[in-house]
Amino acid sequence: MFKLCVCPGDGIGPEVTKSALAVFETIAKQAGIEYEINEALIGGAAIDATGEPFPEASKVTAMKSDAVFLGAVGGEKWNEMPVSLRPERGLLALRSTLETYANLRPVRMFAGLEDMSPLKADRMKNGIDMVIVRELTGGIYFGARQEGDNVASDEEKYSRKEVTRIAHVAFHTAQTRDKRVTSVDKANVLASSRLWRRVMEEVALEYPDVALDHLYVDNAAMQLIRDPGQFDVMVTNNIFGDILSDEASVLVGSIGLLPSASIGESKALYEPIHGSAPDIAGQGKANPVAAILSMAMLCIHSLKRKDLAEQIEKAVSVVLERGERTGDLMQPGCEIRTTEQLTEAIVREIAK
Length: 352
Ligand code: IPM
Ligand code: MN
Prior knowledge:
Blueprint: E1 2-9, H1 13-31, E2 35-39, H2 43-50, H3 56-63, E3 67-72, H4 87-98, E4 102-108, E5 129-135, E6 145-147, E7 152-154, H5 160-175, E8 180-185, H6 191-204, E9 211-216, H7 217-226, E10 233-236, H8 238-251, E11 261-263, E12 268-270, H9 289-301, H10 306-321, E13 324-325, E14 335-336, H11 339-351
Parallel strand pairs: 1-2, 1-3, 3-12, 5-10, 8-9, 8-10, 13-14
Antiparallel strand pairs: 4-5, 4-11, 6-7, 11-12
Helix pairs in contact: 1-9, 1-11, 2-4, 5-6, 7-8, 9-10, 10-11
């Protein structure tokens, strides 16, 4: 029995989670997969109900599950809370509790969406099909913090163990693709980056079939816009990965398209990379594709059923190419769909 913990969260989180679950249920039924779904509170929704962004009950449910699906967390309403009680803390606590240290963020151009990219067509002549492997449970997000009125600091610290394990994930990922890894750091300035680079080089020796190169993060930010097609797998630390994945997401048309999987030794967490978008919450305007594709990633990494993931991805690309779109992807000749309508179209396509 596959146990899925579902954390809808805040803003558009519950809407896109509903879409993702509709797809999951369709695919599971089709494939004869038995499952059990347990909901858990996280983020602002959890703060409102219990006073904490990641209550003990949610921790227990998450830890008892084979995988966790999360919608999104955060919103204006909780912005004035002390930092330890903000919705984002809940998400960080979840990632760290599950020890899902490797965050995989695939970025790929869908057919028919080329004109939605802010890049000129000739910048994308090599296509866009890459995976950002972001270290997720270390670095400056979790380092020592001091917060005073006149001085404040955040520590960026990495251990050999942390860099080694994320390196293996990057090289393994590359082995399933074009066999190229670009490691992104700031080794010309940061000690933590120099250790990062050394360890990447060492681990690379175990993967003679994979090519490794290095870029400084400022250069990587530029190269992503200059020629995104040059990248296969990009591996980087927590904060650089956060920034570069938002940058990469606009290249393919909308942040509402990008899924993610966070993998650890035994647990896994799936979430769209977009936020809670409180401005459009509850209006049926949210693009469910990122959440739905996160379910496809669940099929690959938790169910070990790449075939089911391909079925979901195919359905998404057929529907988008046909011109059924949410507002973020509107183009001449396309037809507007609500979150629910687009989800239904994708579910119908899967059921075919
Ligand atoms: C993301 C988000 C989170 C992060 C926030 C909400 C804490 O931006 O998943 O990319 O910074 O990791
Ligand atoms: Mn982010």
